[in-house]
Design goal:
With 97 residues, this protein is an alpha/beta fold. The chain contains three helices and four strands, in the order E-E-H-E-H-E-H. The protein has a single domain, classed as Response regulator (Rossmann fold).
Length: 97
């Protein structure tokens, strides 16, 4: 099950941008079925969704883009490493687990 790293607003919802576009979500999971299912469901809800197949690809995306929510599969081999978790939280300073 993916772990949630997010920038929820004070009411507990993902913020929308000034332009009215919904939040941007990054899904990091090595299982294609989970990634694709989350992409379909979240896109239907109006969110912008990007994918990564592993922690390294996810970190690379975080270095290039800003996200309102990151869904991280903690069963990924690299995700079990505490250094990986620290790298994610340093990439997202306002991150809450």
């Amino acid at each position: 099950m993916p772990e949630v790293l997010s920038n929820l607003n004070s009411s507990g919802f993902l913020p929308t941008s000034d332009s009215g576009a919904d939040a941007k979500i990054l899904v990091i999971d090595d299982e294609a079925g989970i990634r694709e299912s989350l992409e379909v469901l979240l896109t239907l809800e109006g969110y912008t969704v990007e994918m990564a197949v592993d922690g390294e690809a996810g970190l690379a995306r975080l270095e290039q883009n800003s996200y309102d929510l990151v869904l991280l599969d903690l069963s990924l081999p690299a995700s079990r490493d505490s250094n990986c978790c620290r790298r994610f939280t340093s990439a997202i300073p306002s991150c809450r687990w």
